[in-house]
Write a structure and sequence with these properties.
The complex is a heterohexamer, with two copies of chain A (about 120 residues), two copies of chain B (about 120 residues) and two copies of chain C (about 100 residues). Chain A is α/β, with parallel strands linked by helices. Chain A has one domain: Hypothetical Protein Ychn, Chain: A. Chain A has four helices and five strands; from the N terminus they run βαβαβαβαβ. A five-stranded parallel sheet of chain A has the order 4-3-2-1-5, with helices on both faces. Chain A is globular. Chain B has a five-stranded parallel sheet with strand order 4-3-2-1-5. In chain B, helix 3 links the parallel strand 3 and strand 4. Chain B is globular, with a radius of gyration of 14 Å. With about 120 residues, chain B is α/β, with parallel strands linked by helices. With about 100 residues, chain C is α/β, with parallel strands linked by helices. Chain C has one domain: Hypothetical Protein Ychn, Chain: A. A five-stranded parallel sheet of chain C has the order 4-3-2-1-5, sandwiched between helices. In chain C, helix 1 links the parallel strand 1 and strand 2. The chains are: A alpha/beta (about 120), B alpha/beta (about 120), C alpha/beta (about 100). At the A-F interface, helix 3 of A face helix 3 of F.
């Protein structure tokens, strides 16, 4: 089964990214595929490359790098990103900036879309 | 897409305009999706129906009036259906004549039936 | 105190939470999506009418205009003010934002 | 459909909005702050008990543990699942997030 | 601060823990404020009372359990008062024995009275 | 009258920054002072220096630069900022990174604190 994931909330402020991360790990462990993760609305802020959370806390930048290393595409909406300052020089190397068409392609190519 | 089956996607618009950006960024997505020749529906439920109110003028907030785009969604951007939930309108003291564009007004049961046909939901 | 409500009453408990803390002499300011509480014919009309019997209620002009609400659609005796009025009220009453 | 509710029912209308759209055969998943709806002794206990008569309701283990809710504090017949269970349910039922 | 009058500030904690960061970042502010020898109160109302529940274990979420800090707020960080609104507890099926630390439980009227003494509110 | 302002929500996603901006302008026009604006929680994201909103939309970065030119202090919480990637190299030149003590000092020095 191929999942597409949409993330709408920013890092740390809301639990959305954390819930999505745990969902993605569980899906992979159960042998499913993640077709892609699309970051929209404030969700684009999860892909910021300059995060420095306290050492005793989870590091969302590193969690996303880990997902990317597993081959998962992390797609940052260019328009939502530019509004909020997520541009090529600030997006983490795990993130790939692209257009809204990619969100529709994710809907087409995935068996299931899930929003966090 | 030729012979291939179209993918049915429903935007579920549930938030009021201007207090948050969700309806504006939803419409930006709808406009982009138009080019892909899929089966795109938009359903306005809960506070989402407020986004369709006529006469919006956010100039005093320094914001852009994005509501005009609803009027051209179907013709210019090939959105298949614009549904509005009747109960949400009534609860907010609104009727069809308050809306900026022509829509299909459905009650909850009918809208829930439409949801059965969807492959994916995009809630905003 | 000035109780500021900026979330829609249909979506959030902010209005009803603020009402728990409003006492004689306090005022309420409806702003952002909070203004929908003051719309005639809506679900919160009778609640607002009760509130106005005891406390002054204000509504921000820029927010009602943005959302296409006409002055005549605002419940009677809810006062419509601009940002300068908002500033004045924040001087007269200590503001608490219920979101 | 799987109706996902992740906001607290005390703070948000998400739960009641989702209930408007749940029909026979649908399930509900309570996650994040949505899990408070399933707590015994809380304001939503009777509403949840009615729902369970007709629809399966699931609650995410990681979320109830985080918030200090013990298994015994969850309303009977609400099923507690982990993220793998969440994935399975998202395969069986098309998910819609009501926030 | 010597003879100067202290400033009375009240944190109004209204959100559940973990779903959002507000209570965690509120407590980070409380801890910093302790050093300034002002009159700092914390009031838990609405979903804020849920942040005080005993037995929190967010390890499965990969999150830090910040609730332990509530236990040392008064002694280590000189917070003057920790108030909890009784009605919010009752509505959530909670009682004093559910709470991680000793607090002053007040009803709404009494808590509203305390608010009259505050110069500033910080809602979280 | 001196106002202190606390902003908790991020740019564009929520109206908080816009409401605060209009409030601040009205306060200044009425002859009042703004003792400072403190950015906390997701509010720190308003001070991002790399925002590029569409040209037909308000530019929150420029609005903040305008406030700063009027002499208003825009204080970004260092801890909340680091979590979300708002650090010295990404914060707009209008913003000043500082600690949470500044929020309490704003409460002390202002006649009125208001939260957006």
């Amino acid at each position: 089964m191929k999942f597409g994931v949409l993330i709408k909330d920013g890092p740390y402020t809301h639990q959305a990214m954390d819930s999505a991360y745990n969902f993605i790990l569980a899906a992979l462990e159960s042998g499913h595929e993640i077709q892609g993760v699309f970051f929209y609305n404030e969700g684009v802020c999860n892909t910021c490359g300059t995060m420095e959370p306290p050492r005793d806390e989870r590091n969302i930048k590193n969690l996303l790098l880990g997902l990317n290393e597993k081959g998962i595409r992390l797609i940052v909406c260019v328009a939502a990103g530019k509004r909020r300052g997520l541009v090529s020089q600030t997006v983490s190397c795990a993130g790939e900036i692209s257009g809204l068409g990619q969100l529709l392609e994710l809907c087409i190519e995935s068996d299931r879309m899930i929003t966090f | 897409m030729g012979e291939q089956e179209k993918t049915s996607v429903m935007f579920v618009c549930r938030t009021a305009p201007y207090g948050t950006i969700f309806e504006q960024e939803a419409i930006e997505a709808m406009v982009m999706f138009g080019a892909y020749e899929q089966d795109i529906s938009v359903a306005f439920v809960d506070d989402g129906v407020l986004a369709l109110k006529k006469g919006q003028d956010p100039s005093l907030l320094g914001k852009k009036n994005f509501s005009m785009t609803y009027m051209i969604l179907k013709d210019d951007f090939e959105i298949s259906h614009i549904y509005v939930e009747k109960e949400s309108l009534v609860e907010r003291g609104m009727s069809e004549s308050d809306l900026i564009t022509e829509v299909e007004i459905l009650d909850r049961n009918a809208l829930r039936q439409k949801m059965n046909e969807m492959k994916a939901f995009l809630p905003f | 105190m000035m109780h500021i409500v900026k979330r829609s009453p249909y979506e959030s408990s902010a209005l009803s939470n603020a009402l728990n803390y409003i006492v004689q002499g306090d005022i309420m300011l409806l702003t952002e999506d909070g203004i929908y509480a003051a719309k005639k014919g809506g679900k919160y009309e009778s609640l607002l009418k009760n509130l106005i019997q005891k406390n002054a209620v204000y509504c921000l002009l820029a927010d009602i205009k943005a959302r296409g609400i006409q002055d005549g659609e605002i419940i009677e005796n809810v006062k419509i003010i601009d940002y300068k009025g908002f500033v004045e009220k924040a001087i007269e009453h200590n503001p608490m934002t219920w979101a």
